Amino acid sequence: METDMSIEHVGVVGAGQMGSGIAQVCSAAGLKVTLCDQNQQAVDRGINAIKTSLERMLAKEKISADQLSETLARITSSTSTESLAKADIVIEAATEIESIKQSIFKDLDRICQPNAILATNTSSISITRLAAVTERPQQVIGMHFMNPVPMMKLVEVIRGLQTDDRVFEQVNELSKFIGKVPVDVKDSFGFVSNRILLPMINEAIFCRYEGLASAEEIDTVMKLGMSHPMGPLALADLIGLDTCLNIMEVLYDGFNDSKYRPCPLLKQMVDAGYLGRKSGRGFYQYD
Predict the structure, then answer these.
(1) Active site includes 144?
(2) Which residue is catalytic, options 77, 123, 175, 202?
(3) Percentage of the chain with pLDDT > 90?
(4) Which of 27, 98, 126, 144 is catalytic?
(5) 156 is catalytic
(6) CA 100/CA 177 separation, integer angstroms
(7) In whole angstroms, what is the distance from residue 47 CA to residue 40 CA?
(8) 3-class DSSP string for 1-19
(9) Please, which pLDDT band fits residue 1 given cuts at 50, 70 and 90?
(10) 41 and 16 in contact (C-beta within 8 Å)?
(11) How sure is the predictor about 154, in pLDDT bands with cuts at 50, 70 and 90?
């Protein structure tokens, strides 16, 4: 399928919550997708998450049975990044740890065709620093999707210092093509979304840490008092407390400002393995 931005084949590295969602929306728009993760179990979980999401949409009559089967048929799974050699763009959606992302970008830079765009779904890490580990820094860009990807319209499109304007335009068009609303954001730690959101979540965790109220009461204050659809502690559980901590540490280290200091309770919960929904326990218990 030919598009205005000459992107037909999308590679996605990381089959977790974000990666599987990105793969789903790209395939649903008619693009060929290769979803890659380091082991078969992770890939299988990602494909199953896509199936579940599509079945839920089918039950709500948002898509047809044919659209469901066609979307799945356009997705190929793999445990090797070598499978991404012919992709027009690869979107990295791995763990929010800079060294891991840099390693992936070095690998993709070696494997991908010369004209391929290397994008990252990082929610806080400098695009400029990720681009610098490649031999094609002008083709590296941020493409920050929101969670859950199939439902949330926003994509922050972030240029590094080296990013070519044409690459930005292609990614902007791709975002629109897959049904998203792109917003042009400068490269700064946390960008706009998480520079605002994560300190708010961290402050809610401080309120819990200091015993001001229960988790339910804190979330109720924000839902009923500020019209938030989800309370900050429930949202932290959805995002993953380890991811929240990683982002806060990027902000704290990047800006060298104490206002971004992660709450000790957040650190303790991550140390205990209480990561939120994905582990079955965070500020709430999950089946």
Answers:
(1) yes
(2) 123
(3) 98
(4) 144
(5) yes
(6) 29
(7) 10
(8) CCCCCCCCEEEEECCCHHH
(9) very low
(10) no
(11) very high
Q: How far is CA 280 from the centre of its chain?
A: 20
Report whether the peptide linkage leading into residue 148 is cis, meaning its omega lies within 30 degrees of zero.
yes
End-to-end CA distance of the chain: 41
CB 201, CB 248: distance < 8 Å: no
Cβ distance 22 to 12 under 8 Å? yes
pLDDT tens-digit series, residues 118-144: 999 999 999 999 999 999 999 999 999
Q: What is the pTM of this model?
A: 0.92
Q: What is the pLDDT of residues 258-281, one digit of tens each?
A: 999 999 999 999 999 999 999 999
Q: For the chain, give the number of residues.
A: 287
Is 186's pLDDT higher than 70? yes
Tokens of 83: 């499978």
How far apart (Å, rounded) are the C-alpha atoms in residues 78 and 98?
Answer: 23
Cβ count within 10 A of residue 287: 3
Average pLDDT value over all residues in the chain: 96
Q: Is 228 a catalytic residue?
A: no
Q: What tokens appear for 218 in the block?
A: 């804190």
Q: Which of 124, 156, 246, 249 is catalytic?
A: 156
- Residues sharing a CB contact under 8 Å with residue 134, sequence separation 6 or more, in sequence order: 105, 106, 108, 109, 118, 140
- Concerning whether 123 is annotated as a catalytic residue, the answer is yes
Whether residue 232 is predicted with pLDDT greater than 80 in this model: the reply is yes
Predicted confidence at residue 5, as pLDDT, reads 56
